[in-house]
Structures are given as C-alpha cells and as structure tokens.
Amino acid sequence: MLPVYQEVKPNPLQGANLCSRVFFWWLNPLFKIGHKRRLEEDDMYSVLPEDRSQHLGEELQGFWDKEVLRAENDAQKPSLTRAIIKCYWKSYLVLGIFTLIEESAKVIQPIFLGKIINYFENYDPMDSVALNTAYAYATVLTVCTLILAILHHLYFYHVQCAGMRLRIAMCHMIYRKALRLSNMAMGKTTTGQIVNLLSNDVNKFDQVTVFLHFLWAGPLQAIAVTALLWMEIGISCLAGMAVLIILLPFQSCFGKLFSSLRSKTATFTDARIRTMNEVITGIRIIKMYAWEKSFSDLVTNLRKKEISKILRSSYLRGMNLASFFSASKIIVFVTFTTYVLLGNVITASRVFVAVTLYGAVRLTVTLFFPAAIEKVSEAIISIRRIQNFLLLDEISQRNRQPPSDGKKMVHVQDFTAFWDKASETPTLQGLSFTVRPGELLAVVGPVGAGKSSLLSAVLGELAPSHGLVSVHGRIAYVSQQPWVFSGTVRSNILFGKKYEKERYEKVIKACALKKDLQLLEDGDLTVIGDRGTTLSGGQKARVNLARAVYQDADIYLLDDPLSAVDAEVSRHLFELCICQTLHEKITILVTHQLQYLKAASQILILKDGKMVQKGTYTEFLKSGIDFGSLLKKDNEESEQLPVPGTPTLRNRTFSESSVWSQQSSRPSLKDGAVETQDTENVPVTLSDENRSEGKVGFQAYKNYFRAGAHWIVIIFLILLNTAAQVAYVLQDWWLSYWANQQSMLNVTVNGGGNITKKLDLNWYLGIYSGLTAATVLFGIARSLLVFYVLVNSSQTLHNKMFESILKAPVLFFDRNPIGRILNRFSKDIGHLDDLLPLTVLDFIQTLLQVVGVVSVAVAVIPWIAIPLVPLGIVFIFLRRYFLETSRDVKRLESTTRSPVFSHLSSSLQGLWTIRAYKAEERCQELFDAHQDLHSEAWFLFLTTSRWFAVRLDAICAMFVIVVAFGSLILAKTLDAGQVGLALSYALTLMGMFQWCVRQSAEVENMMISVERVIEYTDLEKEAPWECQKRPPPTWPHEGVIIFDNVNFMYSLDGPLVLKHLTALIKSREKEPVLFTGTMRKNLDPFNEHTDEELWNALQEVQLKETIEDLPGKMDTELAESGSNFSVGQRQLVCLARAILRKNQILIIDEATANVDPRTDELIQKKIREKFAHCTVLTIAHRLNTIIDSDRIMVLDSGRLKEYDEPYVLLQNKESLFYKMVQQLGKAEAAALTETAKQVYFKRNYPHIGHTDHMVTNTSNGQPSTLTIFETAL
C-alpha cells in the first residue's frame, strides 16, 4: 500500500499570537500564494496534532469501549451519544461563553440606538452635554458592532472545528469496525450503506455543533427582548411576540411537509440514478439491440415523476423563504397597529428600537433555534445508525499460531456451516480433510457447490456451526474476483512487504507478468486507476496471484485463479507458479480446469456443499470415475454462495451514495464488483476538475435562465423582484415619516399649552397596511416564480443531456469512467434541482436588501456616498482576492475527500484478502493518512472563509461608524425618523452583507454544475438512429458476414486493433450484463414474449429450477448488477436472453470463462441446438469448447494469422493453433484432435459412416460456426 503521506508544511496557527488568531492574519501567506498561482496539495498546512485522525479516533474509541463494558455490566444497550458527550463536553461548554457575550451584545445594541434617536427627537443645538452623551452612545454602539464582528467568527471557527473533530473520530471508528465485520454482519449491511455512513451521516456532526448552543441561547434571548420591549412600548410588544411564536409552528409544519416530500423525491431520484447507472454500464448492449428509445422513455417517465415532486417541495421552500423575508414586517406591523389603536403616540425612537430588537431576536428564534432542533434530531438519527453499525458482530480473532512442534498444516474435521443462519440447508456439510506442507489439494465441483465457501472456512470467514478447522501457519489468499487497490502495480504486489529485487523478479516470472509489465508504459510503477482499468481481467488475476506468492506464506488458498487467463498462460501459471514456486507449501486450489488434476496430491469433489469423494487421481482412475459426470448439475437447487459482496460504487457521487445502499438480498463475491470498482484515478479525474478554475461566463447564466422560461417571463421576474424590494423599504420609510409628522405636531402645539394632536389614523394606518400587504404578496409571488423558472430549466437541461448521452458514440463511454458520466446525472443535476434555485433566490433577496440599505442611507445623508466608494472598491478587491484562493481550497477539499471513500470501498471489496494477510493495521494507517489529508483541506476551507468574513464585517462596521458619527455631525439637517431608518438599516447589514457575498460565491460555484451539464448537452453524435433507406421488414434473411480488408481502431488516435482483416463468414451476442429489476425484465425488457416462452428459455439453459425456487419466481428482484446470482448463472441468463431474441447472428464473447466444464458443455450444446440456423462467432480461451466449430480464425496482435477448419489447421505442425492445442498436454491434445477429425469427416464426407458417438451437429441446415481465437498477449 502506498506510503503514508510525509510531513507537510508546519501549521502557522501553532505559533500565532492572539491578534493573529483573532483576525486570522496567519493565513495571509497562503492567500499570497493563491493569488500568484493555483494551490496544490503540498501548499496545505499539516494537521494540528490534536486534529489527527488516529489521535481523535482512538480517544473516542476509548470512551465507546468503556461505554460498551458499562452497558454489559448493567445489562443495557450501550449509548454512543453518552460516549460522545463524555468525550467532548468540557471543550464544547467553554464555547457557550462566546454565545452568551455575542447574544447579549445583540440585545444591548438597540438600546443605545434608541438613545441616539432620542437625542434627535429632543434636538437642541445649544445643549453640548446632550451632544457629548450622544457621542458616547455612538461609541458604545460601534464597540458593540466590532465585538460582534470579531466574536461571531471566532465562535463559528471553534464550533466548526469541534464538529470536524467529532466527524473525524467517527470515521476512524467506522472504518476500524468495517475491517472487523463478520460475514453475518456483512449480510446485514452493504458497502453502499457503510459508505453512506461515512459520507452522509457523519456530515451531520459538522452542522450540529454550530447550532447546539442556540438551544438555550434562543429562549433566553427571547425573554430578554420581551422584557426590554415591555419597558419600551408596554403591552403591545406581546402582539408582536405572539406573531413570532405563531410563525414557529407554521415554519416547522412547512419543514415536516418538505421532508416528507423530500424522501418521496429521493426514492424517485434513486430509481432514476440506478436506471442511469445501468444504461451507462450496459450501453453496448442497449446500442446493439437498438433499445435506446425504450430506455429513453423509461428514464423520462421516472424524471417526470421526480420533477413534479421537486416542484412541489420547491414551492414549499419558496413559501418558507418568503415568510422569513416578510416575517419581520408582519411582526412590526402587528405591534405598531396594536400600539396605535391602544391610543399611544408613535415616536421614532420607539419604532426603531422595536424594529432592531425584533431583528435581533428574529434570527435566533426563527432561524437558529429551529435549525438547532432540526440538526439535533438529524444527528440523533445518524448517531443511532452509526451505533447500530458499531454494534454489529465482529469476526472472532483466530490466532494462526504454529503448533508447539512447529509443524504447519490445515486440518478440517466434520465441518458444517451456514452462510445464512435462517436457511435450512447448510452451505457446507460434514467436510473432513488434512493438508500438509508440499501437498496440493484440488477442489472441484459444479457452479454453486460451495468451493469458495470451503476456502472461507479455512480463512476463518465462515464460522462453523459444528466441527472444527485448525490452521497452523500464515495464510495467503487469492480471491476469485481479483482485487486490486489504487496504487502502482508494484505496491499491489508488495502489499506492504519490503521490495527485494531478486525475489520480486522471480515472482513476476512465475506469474507470467514479465511481458505484461514491459507493455505497460511505466512498467510495474504504472498506476492502477479507475476500476483497475489499466489492467485486463487476466492481468488483475495474475497480479493477485503474484501478491500471494510474494508474501511467502505457509498456506496458499487459491480460488480459481486460472479461469481468467488463456490456456497457454494457465499452463504456465500451473506449472511454474503452483507446482514449482509453491511446491513446499500447503496449497488448496479451487479449479474448473480438469486437465491439472493429475498433479494434485489429493482431489476433493464437492456438490451442494457435501463432499462427494476424496482421493488421488490414480485412485479415481482405478475406480473408473468420470470427472465430467461428477460435475454434472442435477436438477436440485443450487445453494447460492453469498459472500460479503459489494454493490458497485462510483467515484465522487457520494452525496448521492444512498443510491447504492440498495440492500442486495444476498450479496455475493461473484458480484461484478471488482470490475466496476471506482477509485479516484488521479490523472483522469484532475483533467475533469480543471474546469473549476476561473469565473463562470455570462453565457452559462443566460443559457441557464433561458432553458427555464421565455425572455418575457424573465423580464417580468426582474420587475417583480424590484417591486418587492421597493415595497419592503417603503413600509419602513412610511413608519419613520409617520413618526416625524407626529413629532412635528407635538412641537408646534407645545407653544400654547401641552395638547398632543392626533394625526388622521385611518389614512396613516391604511397606507401602512397596504404597504405591508404588498410586501408579503410580492415576496411570495417572486419566490414561487423564481423556483418555477429554475426547476423548469433543470428539467430541460436534464432531458437535453440525456438525449445527447444516448446519441454519443460508444468511444465516449470508453473514454469517460462511468463515475464521471453518472456524476453529471446525480450530483450536478441534484444541484440544479435542489440547491441552486434556493441559493439563487436567497442571493437575489439578500442582494436587493443590501442595495436597499445602502440607498436608504445615501438618501438620508447624501455625504455617505463619499466613504462608500473606497469601501466598495476594497470590498470588490477583497472578494476577487479571496475567491482566487477559496476556489482552489474547495477543489482540493473535494479531490482529497474522494480517496477516503475509495479506500473504504476498495478495502471492503478486498476484505478477505486484507484479513488473510493480516493487513488491517496498515489499511487503518492508510485510512488515517487519507483522512488527515482531507482534514488539511477542510481546515483551510473553514479558516479561509472565516478570514474573509472577519474582513467583510470590518467593512460593515466601518459603514455603521460612518452612519452613526456622520448623522451626529450633521444633526442640524436631519430629523429623528430618518436617522432611525438609516442606523437601524445599517445595523442589519452586519450579518446580511456577508451572507449575501457568501451566497454569491455559492451561486458561482454551483453554476459550475450548470456548465458541466451544458457541456454534455452537445457531445459529438453518432449516425441517426433511423435512416431514410429502410431494409425490408424480414431482413436479414441469413447471417453472412464479410470482412474486406478491414482496419479497425477504437479511437482516432488509438492503435490499430485489427489490421487488414479479410474473411468471409458464411451463412448472435452474449455478455453477462444484468439490469436491476425482475428476472422477467432482464429476459424481456419490453414485454414482447409470453410467460411460457420465458420459462422455456430458462429451461433451455437449465435455470428453470433455480428460478422456481426463488420466493418471487420470475418476479424476484435482482440485486444491483445481478449480484445475487453467481457469474456462471448470470451468463446463463444472458444466453436465455439471446435464445428469446432469435437473431441471425450470435456473437459470444468468452461466454464460459467463469463456469465449470459441465456447465460449459451445456452452454455449448445449447448453442449448437438453438442457434443452428445462425451464424455464431465465439471468442474463447477454452479450446475444448470450440474444437467442433466449422472454422477457426486465429488473430495475433490484430492480424489474421490462420483461418480454416480446425482439423485442417491441426494437420499443419507449424500453425499457431496446433501449438496452442499441444500446450494442453498429450492426452488432452489427442482427444481434441480426434474430435476435430470426427467433425471434419462428418461435415465434409457424411457418407463415410464414421463411427460417431459424438453429437455435434444435428441440424439439417449446416450452420456456420466460427471461432475467433486470440493468442495470449
């Protein structure tokens, strides 16, 4: 495994002084670098020692272990929440002091604001004492503002760090647990679910710590504000508070509705993405069968349902935002209407103190407090899920000590075991055998006989329900589905052992990897990337074998390592590797290749988990046993081999990883998991990420809005937004105007006695009510319209992109890993559906409010425009400067996150291998290293955003100071109402301005998703699906294939794969791609056949009994990519699919690589019978399956070397084909030659009654079967 990351740049925070910590100055050098060039991984600062994954994980693990012990003693269920609280309560409690100071400052501010306005109400130019007091008040106000600006960000930084620590500790514990899961436990969970814990559930901790303190601060603040308001305006304040309290359940009711809609949407989204995943995985099949239209309809229907739900939840969200936007207006309206109707007189100081106090409490009560409740409940659910996972069974730690006399051996006695405790039939029953050093035990048996289970019993993965297994010595294990992790080929082979050149070279030679490594560009230092793509299946199998051999263990468990390679390589591996290199070792080999049984010291024949016979090859020969017949599959049910399997994971779609947690009813290692394993392929992925540099062009915004609505609608939308904001400001302005009119009346009357004249209430209240209503209505209309347009545009773009993908040439799918294409459909479309409309609306609202605040201030005191200009310039420069760095930090954060997930999913796929080699410790270290790297980026992400926020708030504080002191200096020309309006607005700017800027950056970031989607809407297209010249409906009449000097390459710049190929094939397809859904859907996706036809097809391939035994028969849901069937069974299903379609040409690509000879014979027989009228092309590595073909074509590196009847080729001792047959050994070669001869004579000279007991071709029309044979690399 790759080395743990070396020490990086020391973290400057460790040596920073107090000032630097408060203002985040220590980050300045980083911003300078970010300004000059792109940030790379080595620019990041190392993790603080107290934030290291290992330290945090072990600390929390300690508390959890104590808690588990305590619970056992008290006979209770252990509580993870309790362990977390015990671990973190002290450090978190201290942060509560911050909250207290900050919320108090928010409450004090309005009081001093009131005092300043008071000065204006009783303005007397002569009174210098009053002026000085006013200056003092203004100073206190600005000090409060500054305290808020600084404290707020320190607090947020610390709580986010607390959240990060908790998350890291949890991830460490989850991974540690994953490596110890027993197979029973693996049955209860899936890779998808574990990855989901690691990607979604732990993220809740990042959020919950931020809001937790508001659970007590919220109510406290509400009480304090109510008390102050009572002192200020008496009983009327209760009316406003009542509205506030009423709004709370109203909002939570919205929230509940929203989350129920959300979960419904999620099921549709899951279904759509799962279907998309299958479309992309099986795109070759879809294009071959011309199924695009049907699949297109399928996805479009799913998307329609999903969008209708999304629209509804978006409208709810819109209502929620609008209610938040106008809540303060309604509250103030209700308060003052009550106040005036109770016969009180309105004054500016009272109005604006109330407005500001409500503003302070509203954020806490309507935003933070509900958020705290919501996040806490989410976190509790997540904790419960993680707790259940941490309580799953662990594998019993077996020590494989050498016995006291130092003899190494494997001894199994009377062993019985179940994979699934619930099932009646045991997986293995009554097995007994002993293997000693220098012996080779071969295990053979039909598909599903329990051969892999036998190895897992020796590994200790399958716990005995009866009997015993004793293993003395170190184990090396080679799995059936080869497992490679991302790293170099060499690191895959060394697997943590030291590199010793001589030994390494020997291993490479024995495993036939020498030539392969020369062909790879960087030799054994080539990086195995995305899904192990750089290697072919055969190469992966050999790398796996090489890893085991290099370990130099005592006991070797080899699970069918020879089936993925061709005859020549298979022979090389068997002779050089298994028989020579491992000859002193204990070796247990599971195999389907009967030709090697002679070399085995003993042979064990399994069937349905029972041992049919055991003995040596000679014993078997004496007793006249026919191996072939022993491996026959009777019609009894084949016990499935569930093995901890893994649903396929795709890179970087983890936000949607819930998609993959579809529980497979019985996962099995026979899953296509390893082929589709996605690990971040660094070179490939980075090329993808480069797009996130620089700004998003105006064009993208235009396309995005235009996709949603006609330009007339968009112009209307702009007008509506403006109207809403104008109404918003006018409502406050009217209040200040009213207060001014009132105070002017008071002054004039004062001359002749103290009678306060009342204004015409109906007129003022009437207009006030009208403006309030307008604000609310415009606010709601605007929210709904924005959502309507943007969700619409998401729908349009999705459809365009999907259409474009279906029409893209196959090469596109070879060039781009599934994960990357799927990412556009899951993550990017997810952003367009969900986050982007919300963020855009939020941004528009806050931006207009900021504009409103500034314009009000300028209207009141035109002089303010002067300091505004430099502040504006500083701001624009700051934002540019910040975004240069923050974009890179964000990119680094997402690229460093991926390896954490890849490492987890790849570890789960190789779980048995890791445990067999005792590599858990090393994997854990590697996981911690990946986590620490991500923490470096995350830490920067937190601190850089705080750096920016502190500076933004400083700008706002400047603005407040300018307004406060400016109004005092210009006191002569101003009246109280105007000052109140300008100052109270300036104070609201504090949080709002930086929220606005943050949302603008968010919008820009998410627009990258729009760009990525638009980029996929015009890919190069293949030829149209339907052309003008239509062939007759009965075409083709017969399957004639002509190659005329064909040169072929996969891509324009790729190498020639076929060179000058000329051949005539006189007068159909098969690869095991299964789709999720029922068996019926897999055989017949578009319901074109009757049930009877389907059952017949299944009967033909001998799957009928297996399917009938399933609970839902033909309507049984297949697990993801068919993982509840073994590879062999999946190939049979595909063969059944081909039988149903009755095409003229059948192409069979390695149909029988993963099945035992018996099943192989069955498949070949079916092909001869069922496809007698077809032209059949077989691509194969097993010679016995194709020796009776009509012709054999031998290709070597793309050139046609030989093309003739098998028997004719065998007559030529120089031919490649002859040499390949000889490789199989004398007996086998003689048998094949004899078969070829019989077929040849029967076909060409049928009248010579050749004594023939072979059924080769019982069809009247001579079919043409051709075999294409590729030599080894």
CATH architecture group name of the domain at 1041-1249 and 1260-1270: 3-Layer(aba) Sandwich
Provide the gyration radius in Å.
37 Å
Find the count of extended strands (DSSP E, 2+ residues): 20
Taking the alpha carbons of the first and last residues, their distance comes to 27 Å
Question: Which topology of the domain at 1041-1249 and 1260-1270 does CATH recognise?
Answer: Rossmann fold
* Oligomer class: single chain
- Parts with pLDDT < 50 across at least 5 consecutive residues: 633-692, 1250-1263, 1269-1273
CATH class type of the domain at 1041-1249 and 1260-1270: Alpha Beta
How would you sum up the global shape? elongated
The percent range for strand residues is 5-15%
Q: Taking strands numbered 1, 2, ... along the chain, how are they ordered across the largest sheet?
A: 5-8-9-3-10-11
Helix content: 55-70%
Main location: membrane
Cofactor: Mg(2+)
Subunit structure: Interacts (via PDZ-binding motif) with SNX27 (via PDZ domain); this interaction accelerates MRP4 internalization.
Membrane topology: Multi-pass membrane protein
Explain this structure to me?
Its main location: membrane. The protein contains 39 helices and 20 strands. The protein is α/β, with parallel strands linked by helices and 1273 residues long. Among the domains are: 409-623, 3-Layer(aba) Sandwich (Rossmann fold); 1041-1249 and 1260-1270, 3-Layer(aba) Sandwich (Rossmann fold). The protein is elongated and about 130 Å long.
